[in-house]
What we know:
It is a single chain. This protein has eleven helices and six strands. With about 260 residues, it is an alpha/beta fold. The chain has one domain (about 1-255): Metal-dependent hydrolases (TIM Barrel, Alpha-Beta Barrel), CATH 3.20.20. A six-stranded mixed β-sheet has the order 1-2-3-4-5-6. Helix 10 links the parallel strand 5 (about 195) and strand 6 (about 220). It is globular. The protein starts with a helix and ends with a helix.
Amino acid sequence: MLVRELVAAGITICAVTDHDTTAAIEAVTQLAAPHGIRVIPGIEITAVLNDEDVHMLGYGFDPAEPVLVAFLERQRADRRRRLDEMSARLDVVGAPVDLETEIASHRQGGGKALGRPLLAAALVRAGHVDSVSEAFERYLGRGRPAFIARQGALPAEVVTLVHDAGGLASIAHPVKLKRNAIIEPLVDAGLDGIEVFHPDHDFNAVLHYRQRAQRLGVLATGGSDFHGRESGRTNAMGKVTLPRDAFLRIDERLRS
Length: 256
């Protein structure tokens, strides 16, 4: 499905940045090759700072690097731990879901890591809410009855992990993060880029973060953050892309 979307949108270079897993990279690379689409290894790793998620992007690394592989296995195990605890809380508040069935169905659909969207969709199917957004607002968002905090590595540790696997590290969608104060310390820790182009970044945000990236001497990264047409997110495939000059700077770094 993803490759069909890429072809329809006229994309010629992409990175698959699933959360905490590289499972789709090989398949997408093989399926995209006949269409002349170059696939750069990518990932979105969930780091944790002061009990809040910080999404970190990795590009051009070796997906088979042993330390990275072991780290991602721990990340996925914590995702399952978190789902189990949130499911138990949903039982307590009178909104039970069949977690095992949902996970089995999820795995049949591909290699994506488990996360709160799975529980949100389950709440919709069980009739407890009318939409994924309502599921987060009533049960799964921070401060809601079923919310459980994540456990994970610090953002600076993720930067080192990506570097050790031969890749470049960027902080994801800083407008959504709303923690600009952490960017410069991460640059000091080796951060390679800031995600400038994103569906949630309006003109002013793009201008702000592009100027910040230039001032700090780091790369401008970006993409559509496509999660599928039924995800409830903005479908920006082919609409939000990385400008050619920004990509060429990234490509030069990757090739060097």
